[in-house]
Design goal:
single chain; alpha+beta; 4-stranded antiparallel β-sheet
Length: 141
């Protein structure tokens, strides 16, 4: 018995809809966590990846938006992040990050890390870094 093209298209459409639903549900669960915000990330020489970040006690967890992993894709310790400067997106970066984002250039374990977030999210990020317990380094540009 041959499968009709309409049935194949329906199954494909159903699978795509299920995928979109799962990604949306995962994003909703992540963003409900305290301090979650949209944040694109790029390592030295890499490409921008859209994500959601959230603060934990002494680290910041970052999750890819389009992924199925439940755990954080990356974590950056508060002690290990140094903000070098912040700037506006340059050239084609403006198309790779969210609108009205500010790019925050950081040093993390002697490597360059760039985060793109809203101005409001940057204020929260800087406050989180500065509010570290006594004895922690808090370098914020």
């Amino acid at each position: 018995m041959a499968v009709l093209p309409l049935e194949i298209a329906l199954v494909v459409l159903l699978l795509v809809a299920l995928g979109v639903l799962l990604v949306s549900l995962r994003r909703r669960v992540i963003t409900r966590r305290l301090g979650a915000f949209d944040c694109s990330a790029r390592r030295e020489g890499g490409r921008w990846v859209l994500g959601v970040a959230g603060f934990r006690r002494d680290d910041m967890a970052w999750y890819r938006v389009f992924g199925v992993d439940v755990g954080a894709g990356r974590t950056w310790g508060r002690r290990e992040i140094e903000v070098v400067r912040r700037r506006s997106p340059e050239g084609s970066e403006a198309y790779a990050v969210l609108p009205d984002a500010v790019v925050v250039e950081c040093r993390h374990r002697e490597q360059t890390l760039e985060l793109a977030m809203s101005e409001e999210a940057y204020t929260g990020f800087a406050s989180w870094l500065e509010s570290s317990p006594p004895g922690y380094r808090a370098d914020v540009a």
